[in-house]
Amino acid sequence: MSTEAQIAYRNELLAHGLLHATDVDGLYARSGVFEDIALGIAALVSRNGAAEKPEVMRFPPGMTRGTLERSGYLRSFPQLAGTIHAFAGGDPEHAALLATLDRGEDWTSGQKATGIAFTPAACYPAYPIVAKRGPLPADGALLDVQSWCFRHEPSLDPARQQLFRQHEHVRIGTAEQVLAFREQWLQRGRAIIESLGVPFDVDVANDPFFGRAGRMLAANQRDQALKFELLVAITSKEKPTACCSFNYHQDHLGHAFGLRTADGATAHTACVGFGLERITLALLRYHGFDPKAWPDAVRRALWG
Amino acid sequence: MSTEAQIAYRNELLAHGLLHATDVDGLYARSGVFEDIALGIAALVSRNGAAEKPEVMRFPPGMTRGTLERSGYLRSFPQLAGTIHAFAGGDPEHAALLATLDRGEDWTSGQKATGIAFTPAACYPAYPIVAKRGPLPADGALLDVQSWCFRHEPSLDPARQQLFRQHEHVRIGTAEQVLAFREQWLQRGRAIIESLGVPFDVDVANDPFFGRAGRMLAANQRDQALKFELLVAITSKEKPTACCSFNYHQDHLGHAFGLRTADGATAHTACVGFGLERITLALLRYHGFDPKAWPDAVRRALWG
After folding, report:
1. pTM
2. Is the ipTM of this complex over 0.95?
3. What CATH number corresponds to the domain at position A14?
């Protein structure tokens, strides 16, 4: 499903040593140069949100399986979720596993699900932590979060990786609070990408809901303008890549995780996510493969 | 298996908001303060190794399942490895999954292994990348790498997390080259931890090899002094915590991944790993929970 332009860009990135390929599509090691750009973007996003003093949380790449189950993700995106499985046997089962491995056969059927799932979106692990604190204060909650995320969608498009990072701000509170937050960040997101000298559009969007029922969910999400994306033409003008997303979840996650406002109502939530790999790829596309030669204004925005 | 001292330290870290607990033992979110310390340690380690101009690689938290299989990790530590599994069905299987989930039963048996395993040690993903380049140059290879790692060992000891970061330097070359590297880093590791004002010991050590055969492997590893650890008394003087490890793999990984020296011989490898979470926990133990009040020399070492 990857286009020639995507594969050509992938090959350029590999040839310049910015990414290192593996035997699995969508799984790459990063060079130091690539990483410095990605971390510069994360720092830029955090600086833009610092005035409101968000609580900073950094997550490991996995969250509890219970969080995945409660979130509704398995209902909407079962095809993308990843669970972590481990060996639970003793010496005899170990001998059998090694014999299977030595025969070159599939040894993974004996792996048992652990209590950990791969995080599919950087904001999910935050909700149970905030919910456990009890009802929100009157001004709600505001978080600056980051996580590695997993989505099982092998692809040769370098902008569609199976493991990638999201840097998000998350707002939890009343509908008014979270909608004002999303509006503020729609403007900030534009300003941030503009400061990086990358052309973009912002448009209403939908998530890749699974199966037949998913088509209706997607249409509904668009009709209600619950999701906007900031789109950059990385390998195609016709099918630009979502580099930021601005999501209003209504009270869906509030219900799922028992988030309550100060007056006891179910909280609404919104999140704005910056895809660190995708914005890095956009910068490399528009300014070239050598960041030392990038425009001064872009370098200052990223690295001060 | 956790001691009272470990649980007491865990509770202090949670009460100070440095870590946020989840329903899974050994899985925590990090505060911004915790994260700044961990990133400061990584930067300090990289600065100490910068003179030799290592190639910097940063890995996503997963590596190919083939790398796990080739590495020998399943032979030695099957109990610690994690594989990533995903849903592979259509609409009917999805309906069945959701029905199982709604009944509160185990829905994970239908998950199928993907091509990705969780990375158990930060150096593993490097070997196939270096091997693919062909025989090494005469001076071998030197890498500065970092990765999130997974080890399935649920514990209430905050120094034994299921998801944590290793910052490593890796040397690939002749036996002489890699042993000289390990000796150099044994001295550097001491100097780095000394500069952080944390008391430590260095001792010969062994990995937690699995099962009955594992006891012999562990004894053999000790007899040959293949592994040293830098140990800090975080919650116990009698059972100090390994914060750095200095490992000589002989030609084991060279064989496993087809690494060749310039003259065609199987390469030897060594790695030195700094546990970012464990060193952070050691600093918080010895200097207190507020880094602003830490000794100036320690703050300068971490943040310049």
Report:
1. 0.98
2. yes
3. 3.30.930.10
